[in-house]
Amino acid sequence: MESHQIVKSRNYDKERRLTHFLYVLPSTLLYTVFTIVPIVSGLYYSFTNWNGISRVYKYIGVQNYLKIFSDRRFIKAISFNITYAAMLILCVLILAVILALALNANRFHRTFFQMTYFFPACISMLTIGLVFNYIYFQGVPALGYALNIPWLQKNILSSKQLAVYGILIANIWKSVAIPTVLIISALQTIPNEIIESSKIDGANAFQRFRHIIFRFILPTLSIIFVLLLKEGLMIYDYIVALTGGGPAGATESITMSIYRQGFEDMKFSYAISQAMIVAVIISTVSIFQIKMSSKKKIYD
């Protein structure tokens, strides 16, 4: 009788493992075909001189990667992306925390306001870029002439120094939505007993945020940091819709540089090597950030 139960239990385990395998198999195949295979193929072609069309190409080793470090266009683009990503992360994190604290404290019509702030996340980046392009080109100058304010009468996207801020504003308007919702979810996990105890002990709002709230939302902030870092380094849609990389290449991002190198200049393998460098940068910073945040304990 016991042996029969053991055999039955083993058969059940085999069937369960088979069921799990069959459920996972389609997504695994899709991920392999559309993610793993392209990455491996791209890594291989980055060591060649393939132009993206010809069937004939040569293996040139690490020449593409060596060329990158002396490419002024790439260095300028990556510098733009790093600066832009830093500004995006700082602005979005600050705004998202402020909005999340305000919405979490406001019990009246909380759901309505959360839906209102989340609405931009439902719009495509290209659409938002086109809308803000019209605002900068028509709306803001018209307002400047109506109010007789000279600095508002010019299109911000026509300035080499200010165009990046025009892109940043459009990006922040969309990107602050999801981090706000995530932080609200993290805030709702904080036990009320801890907050009430801190109030009884005389802690003010800043002290409660620094010593209690911040430590609870830190894991969420780390995830948001990684997502914003990737978004800042991979920005493309807003630039296409707003500036096209101009004026005079002042807002050309690394993704736009990769696109132009591969599909306009037909330097496909060189473009792939640039993409690999960017992937390494994102991965390195993300791993470092996650490890640093994981060492931070809530009750340290």
Summed up:
This protein is mainly alpha-helical and 300 residues long. It has helices at residues 2-45, 63-68, 72-105, 110-118, 125-147, 163-175, 177-187, 192-200, 205-233, 237-242, 254-263, 268-294. It has one domain (69-294): MetI-like fold, CATH 1.10.3720.10.
Task: Supply the helix-strand structural class.
Answer: mainly alpha
Strand content: under 5%
Number of spatially distinct domains: 1
Uncertain spans: none
The CATH topology is what?
Answer: MetI-like fold
Distance between the termini: 55 Å
The count of strands amounts to 0
- Shape estimate: flat
- The level 1 CATH classification is Mainly Alpha
Q: Helical content, roughly?
A: over 70%
Tell me what the structure shows.
With 300 residues, the chain is an all-alpha fold. The protein has one domain: MetI-like fold (Orthogonal Bundle), CATH 1.10.3720. The protein is 74% helix and 0% strand. The chain is built from twelve helices and no strands. Helix 3 crosses helix 6 and helix 3 runs antiparallel to helix 9. The model has no long low-confidence stretch (mean pLDDT 85).
Task: Give the topology, please.
Blueprint: H1 2-45, H2 63-68, H3 72-105, H4 110-118, H5 125-147, H6 163-175, H7 177-187, H8 192-200, H9 205-233, H10 237-242, H11 254-263, H12 268-294
Helix pairs in contact: 3-6, 3-7, 3-9, 5-6, 7-9, 9-12, 11-12
Pick out its properties.
mainly alpha, 12 helices, MetI-like fold, 74% helix, 300 residues
